[in-house]
From TrEMBL:
It holds the Pfam family VanY. GO terms for biological process: proteolysis. The keyword Transferase does not apply. InterPro entries: DD-CPase-like, VanY-like_core_dom, VanY/YodJ_core_dom, Zn_M74/Hedgehog-like. SUPFAM superfamilies: Hedgehog/DD-peptidase. Residues 118-245 form the D-alanyl-D-alanine carboxypeptidase-like core domain. The keyword Metal-binding does not apply. One of its GO terms (molecular function) is peptidase activity. This is D-alanyl-D-alanine carboxypeptidase-like core domain-containing protein. Keywords: Signal. Residues 31-85 are annotated as: Disordered.
Amino acid sequence: MTAFLDRLLLPGPAVVLATTLLLTGCAPGAVSATPQGQRSPGSAEGRAAGSVAGTTPEAPASAKKSGTKGPGPGKPSVDLTAHSATDPASPWVVVNKRSPLAPVDYEPELTTVRGYLVRPDAAPDLAALLDAADADGVHLTLRSASRGYPKQVQVYEGWVAQLGATEADVVSARPGHSEHQTGLAVDVGSSTRPECDFDPCFGDTVEGRWVAGHAAGFGFVIRYTPDNRAVTGYAAESWHLRWVGRDLAAHMRDTGVSTLEEVFDVPGGGYAR
Ligand SMILES: [Zn+2]
């Protein structure tokens, strides 16, 4: 398993062209597992926020523009001061290229859901999400979950050695800057079209459409959408789910604010260098 993961997560010999995939928030080595993925960066092929004809009666995920600051007047349906946006132990911690985890090598307590490590507070909703999809006949797979600091160091330095720092920053998060280190983020995959895992075409799979329509109902946000790239600093990843709890996820869905940066007024965008 370790050897497999290393092969999956570390740069392989034939992946240079795949750097265009911009898998910055996720398992960077996934590109090496999907060598067909030579797509242009930043294009709108990701369908992360598309509406979906789900089989359970939940509201579709937001397809509204991010970058517009919320829905206008009206009181939030959730107390946005209930948890810290900077404490690494908070369910609402915001981690991006401008705001690393502090301490940078923070390690959360973890438990397992279907064999993958996540934080205990996210585990029940993740299990419920996967069970609900199964009940709808949609079989999501888990492809990546918690990834600790030492692993991220290994992954990032592997890319630097192969591509140089500039290109490494395009395909891999620097240690301390990956949401996966919080234990609150997972990458889901498609059982019907596994070739679309970690690829923009995931959004077009039956599993991707289900997730777009139902993630918020289980407390998850599709963190990186085609519309919020400038705010998050990451290209669209329709497979990367971040748990924030059901109240906040519903609030974000209902208000059309797709980023935690905007919700909590935390700086985003690219690395400050
Ligand atoms: Zn991810």
